[in-house]
């Protein structure tokens, strides 16, 4: 019987634990904060290898590492994520290439037999694994059993290179949805902490700071390149859009959706991947 079955704690509700702000490297255009190991932030499962064979995986299986709590020679994390059917959370310790995880708490949702079988394998691997590796570029991670039986491969969920189309915005009272058959604002994240896009009537440029450990984000030096005199409706949307960009303090990135959140927790802007 695995360690998971012996120690797992089932909860009806799961509270995700966030990280703390860390200092990091800087750019002339923006900054990205990182923890010492580079794990803090959101990761998406991209592959599962079992005895060398790649298994089919559900969409949007994720793990999020809080900012690290350093000890002598090791780092402790609180992690949480989605395992195919349920949300889960628990502790992880990294010491060099050694990994230790669990026990993990999970919610008690039911799924198809296939998803439940996958989830059981995934959580057992997170609990029983003993090896850890992060890619040199910091964008790939592997958690595995030294026996070679099972390996979980993840990709860091970052904003660089993503392109989004606005679907909803907060008008101060309610959330408004946009007609996607018309020209809508777009937001693209470049490779040098720069942004570009379209406001609905003009081109937009600027830069941003991001902390992947806490999902904190801020936009700065936002400007527009005037194309033509916009119609009244587009001009109003542009003003609202740029104002809300400036108010964003955090973000939520999940699959093909991206949201910008205000300091009070209000969802200011909602996007879908282009």
Give a written overview of the molecule.
Helix content is 14%, strand content 45%. The protein is mostly beta strands. Strands 1, 4, 5, 6, 7, 8, 9, 10, 11, 12, 13 and 14 form a twelve-stranded mixed β-sheet that branches. Strands 2, 3, 15, 16, 17, 18, 19, 20, 21, 22 and 23 form an eleven-stranded mixed β-sheet that branches. It is elongated and about 65 Å long. The model is unreliable at 1-34 (pLDDT under 50).
Rg from alpha-carbon coordinates = 21 Å
Output the helix-strand order: HEEEEEEEEEEEHEEEEEEEEEHEEE
User: How would you sum up the global shape?
Assistant: elongated
* Residue share in helix: 10-25%
pLDDT averaged over residues: 83
Compute the number of helices: 3
Main β-sheet: number of strands, strand sense, barrel status? 12 strands, mixed
Structural class by secondary-structure content: mainly beta
Intertermini distance = 45 Å
The stretches of 5 or more residues where confidence is low (pLDDT under 50) are 1-34
Instruction: Work out the strand percent.
Output: 35-45%
Oligomer: single chain
Would you report the number of β strands? 23
């Amino acid at each position: 019987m695995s360690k998971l079955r012996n120690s797992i704690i089932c909860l009806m509700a799961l509270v995700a634990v966030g990280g703390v702000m860390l200092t990091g490297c800087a750019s002339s255009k923006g900054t990205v904060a990182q923890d010492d190991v580079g794990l803090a932030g959101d990761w998406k499962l991209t592959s599962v290898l079992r005895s060398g064979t790649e298994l089919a995986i559900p969409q949007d299986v994720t793990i999020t590492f809080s900012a690290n709590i350093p000890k002598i020679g090791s780092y402790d994390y609180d992690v949480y994520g989605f395992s195919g059917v349920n949300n889960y959370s628990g502790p992880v310790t990294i010491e060099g290439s050694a990994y230790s995880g669990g026990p993990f708490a999970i919610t008690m949702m039911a799924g198809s037999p296939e998803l439940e079988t996958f989830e059981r394998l995934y959580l057992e691997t997170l609990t029983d694994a003993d090896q850890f590796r992060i890619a040199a570029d910091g964008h790939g991670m592997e958690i595995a059993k030294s026996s070679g039986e099972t390996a979980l491969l993840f990709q860091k969920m970052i904003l660089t290179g993503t392109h989004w189309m606005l679907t909803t915005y907060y008008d101060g009272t309610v959330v408004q949805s946009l007609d996607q058959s018309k020209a809508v604002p777009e937001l693209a994240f470049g490779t040098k902490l720069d942004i570009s896009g379209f406001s609905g009537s003009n081109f937009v440029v600027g830069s941003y700071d991001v902390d992947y450990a806490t999902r904190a984000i801020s936009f700065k030096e936002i400007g527009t390149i005037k194309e033509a005199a916009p119609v009244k409706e587009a001009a109003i949307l542009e003003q609202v859009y740029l104002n809300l960009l400036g108010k964003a303090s955090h973000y939520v990135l999940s699959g093909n959706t991206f949201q910008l959140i205000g300091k009070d927790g209000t969802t200011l802007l909602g996007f879908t991947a282009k």
